Each structure stands twice: as C-alpha cells, then as structure tokens.
Amino acid sequence: MYTARLFAALLLAVVCLATQEEYDNDILEEGITLTDSQYGSLWPLPQKVQMSTVVFKLSGASFQIVDAKESSSGASCSLLQNAYRRYFEYIFPSARKQGHVKKKTPASAVSELQVWITSADTECDGFPNVTSDESYQLSVDSPVSVLKASTVWGALRGLETFSQLVYEGEYGAKSINRTEISDFPRFAHRGVLLDTSRHFLPIKVILANLEAMAWNKFNVFHWHIVDDPSFPYLSRTFPQLSQQGAFHPYTHVYTPSDVKMIIEFARLRGIRVVPEFDTPGHTQSWGKGQKDLLTPCYSGASPSGSFGPVNPILNTTYEFMSMFFKEVSTVFPDAYIHLGGDEVDFNCWKSNPDIQKFMEQQGFGTDYSKLESLYIQRILDIVSSTNKHYLIWQEVFDNGVKMKADTVIHVWKGNQQQYQDEMSRVTASGYQVLLSTPWYLNRISYGQDWQATYKADPQDFNGTDAQKKLVVGGEACLWGEYVDATNLTPRLWPRASAVAERLWSDKDVRDLNDAYSRLAQHRCRMVQRGIPAEPLFSGYCAYEYKGV
Amino acid sequence: MEVKTSSNSVRFDKQRCSFIVLIMFFSLPAVNAVWPMPQLISSSTDRYPLSPRQFIFQYASGSSAKSGCSVIDSAFKRYFPLIFVDYLKAGGPRQHDNWFRLPLNEGVFTVLVDVRKADCEGYPDPDSSESYKLSVSSGQASLRAKTVWGALRGLESFSQLVYQDDFGQYFVNKTEIDDFPRFKFRGLLLDTSRHYLPLPAILKTLDAMSYNKFNVFHWHIVDDPSFPYQSSTFPGLSSKGAFHPSTHVYSQTDVSRVISHARLRGIRVLPEFDSPGHTQSWGKGQPGLLTSCYKGSVPSGTFGPVNPAMSSSYQFISRLFKEVASVFPDPYIHLGGDEVDFTCWKSNPEVRGFMQKMGFGTDYTKLESYYMENIINLTKTLNKTSIVWQDVFDNHEKLCCSSLSVVEVWKGGCYLCEVRRVTKSGLRVILASPWYLDQPGPTHDWARYYTIWPLAFKGSEQQKSLVIGGEVCMWGEYVDATNLSPRLWPRASAAAERLWSDEKTTSSVTDAFPRLTDFRCRLLRRGIQAEPLFVGHCRHEYEGI
C-alpha cells in the first residue's frame, strides 16, 4: 500500500503550496452556510427521524435507563448494564452515579428510558458479527421513552442515538424533544484500521478510539497489528517473534491479556476486532524472530544479507503458518481474519537461485505472480481449515488467485475512476467487496477535507443491483508512518466521522450544509466526552478540550 | 508539479536511509544531541555519571545573580526534573529544597552558574544577550552568561546533554559549548481568535518554546471571529465579542500569568491587535467603530474595517492601546494592518466624503495609509515600537521610511524578494512566509521548514543585518487545543534550529534527521505531544490520548 500512499501525499503537497496565498480567507469552502440542522447533533443520521417541537426535561436525579419489563434481557446482561451506566454518565457528565431514589419528576419530563430486547436470544454474551442485527426503534416520550431492538447490538446503537438527542437547554437543563426514530445501518461492515507496527500504540489510545468508534456507530476495528517495522503481537506459540521483532520486547508489545482486554472492550461496544496478519510481503519484522521464514536475497551468486517476502518454497514456511494461524484463530474470536497479500516485491524472489529452480519445476516461467498465487492459496487453505473466513487486499484478486466464494476483497488502490472500476470487476466476479481508497485518513491537506471523504460512496460504480449488494461496507484507514499516540486521535476524529455517516446513513443523506452543522456539534460532543477531535473550522465548543 | 514531486521523493528516500542508520545507533549515547545546534560545541567520549541525589545547582561566587534571583531560582527548580526525568516518578523527595541544603559529599556534581548582569526581575527585550558558555568537566559544569536570559539558554543546553543508558543511569559527556543565537527574534504565533486556546495550552506551548530556544510569543489575540481579550477599559469588547463572555476569555489575571510564565523562560510576549481589517469581533462590543457597509443608499446591516473617517475611532484605539501598552511590558506592539478590504469603505457615503475632504481621490490605499499612520504615531507616543504585516509596506511607499520600523513578511511566492525590498528601504524584517505551520500536509514535511535560507537574497551586509529573525505561525482556522501540539512540534523545532544555529553546520537534512528524531523523543518525555517524523519508536511513548 506504500507507493500509492506516498504518491497521493505528494500530490496533496503540491495542492497545498498552490493554495498558500489564500490563507486568511475566512469563507467556508463550497459555500457552506452556518444554519442549524433540523436534526440537531445526530451523527450518523438515523434512517428515519421524526422530531417534534415538544420539549421534555431530563433530570439527573430521577432519570434512569432500565430494562423494559417485556425485555428478554435482564440484570444478568452486563453488556447492557455497563452501557446504561456509560450512557447515563455521557448524558449527565457531572453526576457520578445513577440515582436509586426516584424523586418526583415534573410532568413534562422523561424519567425513564426502557430498553426492550425482543429476540429470545439477546446475544448478550456473544460477539458481534457481520450478520448481527443493529437495527432499533426509539420512541422518546414523557414520562417513559422506549428503545426497542432485536438484540443487544441494536440496543447499543439506540443508546448512542438517545444520548445524542439530549441537549443542554437554557440555564443548563438537559432537554430532549419528542422523537420517533427507526434506524438500521446501510452497510454491515463499517471499519477503522489502525496500524500498530509502524508506531506502537499504547493500549489506552486503542481503547479511547474504540470508544469514539462506538459514538460513530463503527462496528469493526481492523487491527493492522504487524508489518515490516515491528511485530508487537506477543504470540504464545512463537514468543520470539515479538521478543526479537517488536520495537521493545516488553514496553512495545501486546500481551495475550492486552489483546483479550481490547477484544472485550470492543465487544461491549458492539465492535468486532478483525486482526490482519499481512503476508507474504510486509513481513520484515517477522524474520527477526523466525529464522528461515523470509527469502534470502542474493547479490549475484551469494546471499546479500537482506531478506525479502516470506519464502514460499519451503515446507517449514507452511508448518509455521499453520501453527501461527491456529493460534490467531483462537485468540481472535471474529469469524474473519485479514490476510493482507498486498505489495509483494518480486525482486528478492527473482534473485534467489532456489526460488528460480522452483519456478522452473513448477513451470511458472518468469511469472512471479504465479508463485505469489501458490503461496496465497496455501495460506487461504490453512486459514480455511481453522474455520475462519478471510479478507484480503485487492492485489490477490487482481493476480487471479482462486478464493472461496465468501472472501471479501478490500479495495485500496487508485484514483476514483480506478477504484470504481475495481469495485465493478470484483463484484462482477461475484465476490464481496470492502472499500477504503477514498478513506486513507493518514493523508492530510489544508482545509475541510472531510467533505471529499463524505462525498465518496462505495456503491458508486457501474454494476447491477446484485453487484451493489456485494458491497459489505468500507473502512477508514489510518496508516502509521507519521502517526502515533501523539497525533492519532485528532487526525482520526472527526474526519472518520464523515466515513461513519456514509456507511450508516441512507445514501441520499449528502447535504453538506446540514452535515456541517451536525458534525460540528458532534465533534464538540466528542471533545466533551474526552476525545481530542479536531475542529472543522473557526468556532468554538462550549466545553473545550482540557486534556493539554 | 513533476519537479516538486521528484525532489520530494528524493528527500523521502534520504529520510528512510537515515532512519536505518538511526536504528543501528539507537542504544549508543547521544552525543551532540543539543537542539538547536549550538554555534560551537565540542565533546569527548569521556562521560560522567550523574545521580539526582548528588547533584546541585549553584551560583558561582563571582556571579552578580545570586540566590533570590527569581529567573534563575525557578529555572533550577524546573530543570532538575527535566534533567532527572525518572526521579519524581520513582518516588524521590517531592521537595528538592531540603536536599539542596544537604552537606556536600564526595562525588557531587555541581552546575555553577555565573551571570554578569543580574536583571533578575526584568523582562527579556529585543536587545537582550542570550549568549552563554558552558563547560562540562569532571564533577562540575560551569555556565557563564552575560544575562539571566543567556543562563536560561545554557541550562536548556545542559539539560539536553544529559542522557540515560539502557539501565536508566544518567550521564553527561565532557563538553565545551560557546553559543549565541543567529537571529534575535525567534517567534511563534498562536491565534486565539479563530479558536479559543485554554490557558494550559498556551503555557505548555511556552514550555516547549523554551526547550527550542524560541524567545518571542506573538499573541494574535483577537481577530474577526472572536475577541477573547478582557479589556479593563472596554469590558464590552469581550463580553460581546468573545465566543463566550466568561469561559472563552483571557482575564487580566490570565494575561499576566502568560507574561510571567514567558518571562521566567526568557520569552517576550508580543501582543497583536490587528486593525483596521480583521476586526469583525471588535464591532460587537464597540458600536460605531466599524464602517457601516451600504447597499445603494441604505446601510446593509453588515460592517467592514474600522471606520477611518471618524475621530472617535482614533480616540477608542488610543485608549485601548494605552491599556495594552501598560498590560504588555514588551517594547513592541504588533499592529497588523493586513488584508484590508476596500469594498465596504467604498460603499459608505461618509467615508467617501472624507476621501474627498482629504483629497485622496479614489485611492483607498491612501485612506488606509492615513489610518495606519495615525495608529503608528499613537503607538509611538506610548513609547512602543510597532510591527506591521507586509501589506502596510507594500501599499504605502510614502509611509515607508518615516513611520514604519519593523515589517513582518508573510506572503508566499518570492518572499526573499520582499525581504530584499523591505531591507533596501532600511526597515527591519521578520520572516514568516515559509513557516505557516497550520498548513499540515504532507506529513513528512519537517525538512521543508528546515531548508529555509532567510539571508539568501542579493543585498548588502547592512541589508542582511536588518533581518532580525523569523516566526512560526499557527493560524487557528483548523487548530485548537485538540490538535495544536502535534501540529506544532516537532515541525516548529526545524524552524527553531534555522533561527538559532549557524547555517553552515546545520544545512544537511540527513544530519538533522536523527538529531531531530532524538529531540522529539525528548520533548515527548517532557510531556510535549510532539508527533513522529517517521516510522519508529521512543523509549517512552506518549501516554495521553
């Protein structure tokens, strides 16, 4: 993914230089005007919203979030109980805990939000998956509001929406309008990729961003956990991988309990954790702890001392991968593993005499993509045998590797025309597809770049309805070359929020003025909840970021 | 476009190479690690272990500054935990004062500070000497400076010489430094109008500035979007013009806290009250100040720049500046004067009448000149020197040499051509154009701010000497407390070295890369949220979010 990323960044650089003159220009780009949205601060916008002008009060002393009597979920569902407490605290930041004593509430107040899980299987103790039902219905009324969802996953989304409906009226009183909402996501896979190899991200940073993801109704954390620069994943089976391959064997690793904590934290917020173990390229750090895994590169007739991609001609490679992926498949509960497969450089393979010989034996001629295919197919077989499905970067599809029908192809390359053509080709072949090209948020530029992010649509390509249905969603990617804990959060938010709305809301939700108004308020809400989400433009939040 | 792209990628490759070099040497003691690079530094591989329990700061016996000197006393207190970064965390004594007084044992390392002129209660000014000499030998470091400001720079350098090995043991190498700044004015602009910056964000930036030897905080305190300065003479300005009258303002106490925090770090606070443009927020609390724009023969309800035709405008500015001049001790005030839009003036019949009366014809630059000249003269009567943005120089050749003194160059294009023109007129120059850091992308662009050569224009020695320095600008359209620090640091550090160090010893990006990478980890260790230059890690990563 490297070269393309760099190139795009350079293009942006040129654009920036060209606009340097227009500096103190205070006019909002593209004629955005500042008017309040009729939908308040809702983000992403629900599918159906009916908001009345009738206003109810909420009091921290009397308001409660409770299980509805009819609900199939109860006190034993800690996922929901935790969520009730979390959202109570978001709504009443100053109140420490939920009041038990019910005080008399004024007539025009909401005193209760009843959460009603309708399905017999609440999925409370399960993990979210790509077919999880995230739909919900919310009815805000006085004195009782009702949130109805088939499973806990929908309830989590509805609680977030409810919290976004509450606003501070005059004199600081919490208020909410009578509202009816019926909501469901447009796409099932709404992800954020974080890269913990190019820079190590402390656990705290990952958790904080999972929290922010939940506020934006993202449901997949794509954990690009290892890559060339470092191998922070502490493997029980092969501990030397991180011992030798991490930036530091103790301070810059994710232990099994760290990983477990992240997965559980994500689960409680309805977020899947999809790990990526990218091979055969992007594996320099693997080679440090696993001798003979990588291909020795040759300079003329002798080894040069440097190493290339995973060596695809050795049985030991596949024995290692079998054991390794067996572990990964038990550590990560999600049904999917991302297998990477991008940007394989053939130079080292070409230089190696053993590989040349193997190519000859196989009758591959000089077509090294055939060798790559051979490797990938064996890896796919290995992973299939662990009962996991897989996602792979688009090159694997481009190179014609045979894959199982339920493989998801992750599109990341090219300009708009190119990625749309690719989406077309992938879906024409009957594969499911995931889009990231327009959402490489590590690329930055001057101005309101959230607008371009917002306008991109994953179903915007030539294809039949059946093809469009194969689009499972998209992912915002924050690659780590220039990003670590110091700048990750403000670079991700609220720019990723633009992706979040594109993936959740109806495809016709595209009004930039309305979006600006809601997004500016949404970013202030994130700031108030403790996430340093950067500003969209000049202006202020009632509660500025205090975490300096 | 093609040329730019290719030159960028060359630079990028270089960075990758030096990155590899850096990894190879990572665990070796970092020698010559001072950023910005001192003018003269020689160090040997002889190293002395340091222990927080066997370390003291002392005034040299012949020093004019003695115990009780606020600037130096507080610097001792500040630099102790900056030198021994693990000490307080490890549960050492919370109060250093006790063991400052402990009897000295064998093996104590003493930093002896000798300051010739004890201006301990004063403020750094444009002529303050910041030079110092530092000599680190066995058991002692001797720091000599003409002023307390020079001593501060020396203490910073000393703190950067100290490093820890893999076991946490502190060391300092035998070193000789003879140092002084290349430019007198090394500024950093923060914009507190487009977004309000809470006080801790400003104070933290001042801390980071001192680690980089910046010496001027240019406070672009008000502008169109908001007026957070709480004026005691005109409280309406902030109560009506701030984003919020009580949470988004700088009270007099806040302002004096900023000034005092800056003073203790040898940093001047240069306030900017930009007029006649960029004043929309002023109008809210001061009716009649701004020009009423007309649509045909009736007021449109919108307002333009300050109304230059009304004497009340000058009376107001005079009273406001009188306050500003007494609140801010610096001998300079920045008057702005940039980007004045004449459309509104042209629409207003009163202004047109005034133009006629003054014989300006239809040349509105003459009106602008008239306004600026009044403001500049008014500033003079307050015994302050004015700084203006280059627009004032560009538009008003007449004004040029009689009224103007310092011009800040900010526009893009051939900025050195402008520097040449301004210095040719005998005026002093501050260069800001190449250092607009609010512009973020691409991210691997620190070298762009490093490879700036402020004196690379054709001109006499006299002209070159009129370039008094440069300034990093962080405009606030897209910046607030959430993203300020990582956007500033360590990119501003690149400019800091350009402004402090000798160009000859600091021209190579490849040489600077590992040093700056190291320095950014040091900033991180000190709690400054400085972003990474490239792939890699710091021993202690940033622990916030």
UniProtKB/TrEMBL annotation, chain B:
<keyword id="KW-0326">Glycosidase</keyword>
<keyword id="KW-0378">Hydrolase</keyword>
<dbReference type="GO" id="GO:0005975">
    <property type="term" value="P:carbohydrate metabolic process"/>
</dbReference>
<keyword id="KW-1015">Disulfide bond</keyword>
<keyword id="KW-0865">Zymogen</keyword>
<dbReference type="InterPro" id="IPR015883">
    <property type="entry name" value="Glyco_hydro_20_cat"/>
</dbReference>
<keyword id="KW-0325">Glycoprotein</keyword>
<comment type="function">
    <text>Hydrolyzes the non-reducing end N-acetyl-D-hexosamine and/or sulfated N-acetyl-D-hexosamine of glycoconjugates, such as the oligosaccharide moieties from proteins and neutral glycolipids, or from certain mucopolysaccharides. The isozyme S is as active as the isozyme A on the anionic bis-sulfated glycans, the chondroitin-6-sulfate trisaccharide (C6S-3), and the dermatan sulfate pentasaccharide, and the sulfated glycosphingolipid SM2. The isozyme B does not hydrolyze each of these substrates, however hydrolyzes efficiently neutral oligosaccharide.</text>
</comment>
<dbReference type="InterPro" id="IPR029019">
    <property type="entry name" value="HEX_eukaryotic_N"/>
</dbReference>
<keyword id="KW-0458">Lysosome</keyword>
<protein>
    <recommendedName>
        <fullName>Beta-hexosaminidase</fullName>
        <ecNumber>3.2.1.52</ecNumber>
    </recommendedName>
</protein>
<dbReference type="InterPro" id="IPR017853">
    <property type="entry name" value="GH"/>
</dbReference>
<comment type="subunit">
    <text>There are 3 beta-hexosaminidase isozymes: isozyme A (hexosaminidase A) is a heterodimer composed of one subunit alpha and one subunit beta (chain A and B); isozyme B (hexosaminidase B) is a homodimer of two beta subunits (two chains A and B); isozyme S (hexosaminidase S) is a homodimer of two alpha subunits. The composition of the dimer (isozyme A versus isozyme S) has a significant effect on the substrate specificity of the alpha subunit active site.</text>
</comment>
<keyword id="KW-0732">Signal</keyword>
<keyword id="KW-0443">Lipid metabolism</keyword>
<feature type="disulfide bond">
    <location>
        <begin position="521"/>
        <end position="538"/>
    </location>
</feature>
<dbReference type="GO" id="GO:0004563">
    <property type="term" value="F:beta-N-acetylhexosaminidase activity"/>
</dbReference>
<feature type="active site" description="Proton donor">
    <location>
        <position position="339"/>
    </location>
</feature>
<feature type="domain" description="Beta-hexosaminidase eukaryotic type N-terminal">
    <location>
        <begin position="34"/>
        <end position="161"/>
    </location>
</feature>
<comment type="similarity">
    <text>Belongs to the glycosyl hydrolase 20 family.</text>
</comment>
<dbReference type="InterPro" id="IPR025705">
    <property type="entry name" value="Beta_hexosaminidase_sua/sub"/>
</dbReference>
<dbReference type="GO" id="GO:0006689">
    <property type="term" value="P:ganglioside catabolic process"/>
</dbReference>
<feature type="disulfide bond">
    <location>
        <begin position="293"/>
        <end position="344"/>
    </location>
</feature>
<feature type="disulfide bond">
    <location>
        <begin position="69"/>
        <end position="120"/>
    </location>
</feature>
<dbReference type="GO" id="GO:0030203">
    <property type="term" value="P:glycosaminoglycan metabolic process"/>
</dbReference>
<feature type="domain" description="Glycoside hydrolase family 20 catalytic">
    <location>
        <begin position="183"/>
        <end position="502"/>
    </location>
</feature>
<dbReference type="GO" id="GO:0005764">
    <property type="term" value="C:lysosome"/>
</dbReference>
<dbReference type="GO" id="GO:0016020">
    <property type="term" value="C:membrane"/>
</dbReference>
<dbReference type="Pfam" id="PF00728">
    <property type="entry name" value="Glyco_hydro_20"/>
</dbReference>
<dbReference type="InterPro" id="IPR029018">
    <property type="entry name" value="Hex-like_dom2"/>
</dbReference>
<dbReference type="Pfam" id="PF14845">
    <property type="entry name" value="Glycohydro_20b2"/>
</dbReference>
